[in-house]
Amino acid sequence: EVQLVESGGGLVQPGGSLRLSCAVSGFTFKSYWMSWVRQAPGKGLEWVANIKQDGSETYYVDSVRGRFTISRDNAENSLYLQMNSLRAEDTAVYYCARDEAAAGTVHFAHWGQGTRVTVSS
Amino acid sequence: DIQMTQSPSSLSASVGDRVTITCRASHSLSGYLNWYQQKPGKAPKLLIFSTSSLQTGVPSRFRGSGSGTDFTLTITSLQPEDFATYYCQQTFSNLFTFGQGTKLEI
After folding, report:
1. Chain A residues with CB inside 8 Å of B46's CB?
2. For tag attachment on chain B, is the N or C end more exposed, with fewer CB atoms within 10 Å?
3. What digits encode the pLDDT tens for the residues A64-113?
């Protein structure tokens, strides 16, 4: 069974840092692109970043580029999101998701349960 | 970045109704359009990928269609468990984007 379990969320002051983790099991982690998606309270979904299987390519939404870093450890079956210079607008539930490739397209069939990040003084 | 616009933002319907949600992209997507369902406090669930492919285990009353920049999700004969928020997502560009969501209410 595919499982993704996020951790590392919590309360942090504006300007602070936080590192989220996503531990995966039930599939060959090193074979998949992985993404982070967030959802601010009462708002819609926002794709944040993704990373290639070997970590050699990464992409970010404009609002986090330069502040957030996505990374992975294939030996540990773990995905990470290092979040620096946090702002109130980064407050959200953060989900990790597996990028599924089919017929040249990508979709997210497997998601974690989410971890909550609150940026507030 | 490709912008995704869903309509309507909210929709009231009854059990047994047929409903349609639309999603318009700011750039042609070549079919790289997915639909998700989300219930309060839960992670999103994939319904449709690549415009019209039904995800395994999803009931056949969910149908996706469209091309270019215009796409639709149709739910035929609404069931009580279908009342939720629905999102489209484009994965044509390297920077994926979601629509703002459509809340389907009783």
Report:
1. 107-109
2. C
3. 999 999 999 999 999 999 999 999 999 999 999 999 987 678 999 999 99
Chain B hits for A48, CB-CB cut-off 8 Å, are: none
Residues 6+ apart with CB under 8 A from A55: A71, A72, A74
Query: What is the β-pairing status of strands A105-111 and B85-90?
Result: unpaired
| Integer Cα distance of A47 and A39 in angstroms | 9
Contacts of A37 in chain B (CB under 8 A): 44
Chains A, B: CB pairs < 8 Å: 66
Measured in degrees and rounded to the nearest 5, phi and psi for residue B10 equal: -145, 160
Please, what is the average pLDDT of chain A? Answer: 96
E strands, chain B, in order = 4-7, 10-12, 19-25, 33-38, 45-49, 53-54, 62-67, 70-75, 85-90, 97-98, 102-105
